[in-house]
Amino acid sequence: MAIHVEGIVAIVIFYVLILFVGIWAAWKNKNSGAAEGGDQSERIMVGGRDIGLFVGGFTMTATWVGGGYINGTAEYVYLPDYGLAWAQAPFGYALSLVVGGLFFAKPMRSRGYVTMLDPFQQLYGKRMGGLLFIPALMGEIFWSAAILSALGATLSVIVDININMSVVISAMIAIFYTLVGGLYSVAYTDVVQLFCIFLGLWISVPFALSNPAVSDISVTAKEVIYQSPWLGKIEPEDKWLWADNFCLLMLGGIPWQVYFQRVLSASSATYAQVLSFVAAFGCLVMAIPSVLIGAIGASTDWNQTSYGSLPPKDRDQSDMILPIVLQHLCPSYISFFGLGAVSAAVMSSADSSILSASSMFARNIYQLAFRQSASDREIVWVMRITIFVFGALATAMALLTGSVYGLWYLSSDLVYVIIFPQLLSVLFVKGTNTYGSVAGYIFGLLLRIGGGEPYLKLPPFIYYPGWVTQERIHHVTGDVEHFIQQRFPFKTMSMLASFLANVAFSYLTKYLFESGTFSHKYDFLDAVVSKHSKEIMDKATLVSNQESIILSELAPVKQILGASLAGTFNSEVLSDDEESSPEAFHNEN
C-alpha cells in the first residue's frame, strides 16, 4: 500500500493546528476561571457563559457544519436518483437554527439551564430525565461514531493509510483537548475547523471545475450527459417522504445538546438568538462548495481520470465523492490541502458530541439523580472519565460496527419523535406532567420503531399507507437487497402523536386524581397530588429532605456562576411568581 507523504504532511499540519488551538483555549479557560472564581464544572459545560459574538457565531455554525455535513451534501447532489432537490441538510438545518433561535433559545438561556435535560428533570422528575437521556445519548454517540467512520474512509481513499490508525489518532486528539479544555476548546477549534473547510474546499473547486474531464455544470444541471441532471427532482409519489425528511431536519435538529450547549454558553439570551440566526446563514454559505463538488462529480467523464472507467456510483463509493473529486480532479498539492482541511474538520466535529454526552451524564444522571451532594471537583472528574469513555465507545463503534450510519439515522429519528415533543410540552404547554411524558415517550417510540429502518435491516411491524417494496443493488458484489419504504410521513406523525399523547394523558391524570376518581395513593410518580411538595422536581427538589435548597441556574444568570451545581432550589426561585420555572413562562404568555 502506497503512502502519500505529501498527504500525511498536510494532515499532520492541520491536526497539530487543531491540537494547538485546543490546548491554548484550555489554558485560556483555566486562567480566566482562576481569576473569576467560577465553578470549573460549569466552565467545562457552558464555557462560563461568556462566549462572544465572533467565536459564538463560528461554534454555533459548527453545530451541524462538519465532516458529515459537507460529505453528505456532496453525496446527495451527486447521486443520480436524488440530486440537489434531495440535498435537504443545508436548508433543513439552517431553518432548524432559525426556529431554535426564534422560539427555544431565549427561554432556555434566560432560565440559566446548564444542559438540555434540566427542564425535563425540573418538571417531570429525575427518573423521566434518565429516560430522555437515553435517546439523547444515543444520538450523540452514534453521530460521533458515524463521522469518525467517514473520516477513516476519506483518509484511506486519498492517502492510502490504515483506516483504523487514522480513526484512533483523530479520536485521541479530539478527546485530549476536550478533556483539558471543555467547551472553550470545542468553541475555539470550531473557528479553525470552519476556516479549514471554507479555505480548503474553495481552493479546490476552481481546479476541479477547470479539469478537462468535467463538463459545464450549468448544462449537466438540466441535461443528461453522463448521468441524470444533478438538480434532481421530486416525484409526485415521493412528496410526503420528502416533506417528512425535511421536517425531521428542521424540527429534529433543535433538541440536541450540541445545539443547546452553544445556546447556554452565550453571554445573554439575546446573544443566543442572534448566534442562532448567524449560524443559519453560515450553514447555507458553508454548503455551497459541497454542492459544487457534488455537481462536478455528476458532470465528470471518469474514464478520462485516474479514477478509472467506472464512476463512483457504480463502485458504491458515492458517499466519498468529495474526497474522490479532490484526489482525481485536482493537482496533488491542492487535493492534499483540501483533504487536510476536511479531515481536521471531521475530527473537530466529534468533540462537541462527546462533550455533550458527558455533560448530560455528569449533571443530569450522576449529580442530580444519584449524588446530589457531589462536590464540583467530583463532577469535573466524572466529566473527564465520561469524555474518555464515550469517546472510546464512539471510536470502537466506528471501527467495529458496519451499520453505524443506520444507528445514527434511527437515533436521530428518536430524538425527533421523542425529545422534540417533550421539549415543546415542557416549555410551552402548561399543565403537562410525568404521566403524560411517559405516555408520549412510549407512543413515539412504538410508532417510529414500528415503521422499520432499512439501514439496520429492521423490518416494520406497522405498515403505513403508501408503503412499497424497493430494491437496492450493491454494484460491487451484485447483491440485490429488498426493503420496505414507508412513503407516508410516519416520522412526523409519530412526533405529533407523541406530543398529543403527552398533553392528553397529562390532563386526564390530573383530572382523575384531582376529582377523586383515583385515590391519591395511586399517584406513584408523585406527578399530580404531590406536585407542589418538596419531593418533586418542578417546585421541586433535587435533594430530598432539605428545607433550604438552591438551584442557582434557575435564578437570573450571571456570566460566571459561582454557586455550587450540587445545590437545588432556592426559596426565592420557588416563590409564587416563579419567574424562572417552565410554568411561569406559560403564565407569561
From TrEMBL:
Homooligomerizes at cell surface. Interacts with SEC14L1; may regulate SLC5A7. InterPro entries: Choline_transporter, Na/Glc_symporter_sf, Na/solute_symporter. The chain crosses the membrane at residues 6-27, 51-70, 90-108, 129-151, 163-184, 191-209, 240-259, 271-296, 333-358, 379-400, 406-428, 435-451. Its main location: membrane. It is a multi-pass membrane protein. PROSITE patterns: NA_SOLUT_SYMP_3. It comes from Cyclopterus lumpus (Lumpsucker). This is High affinity choline transporter 1.
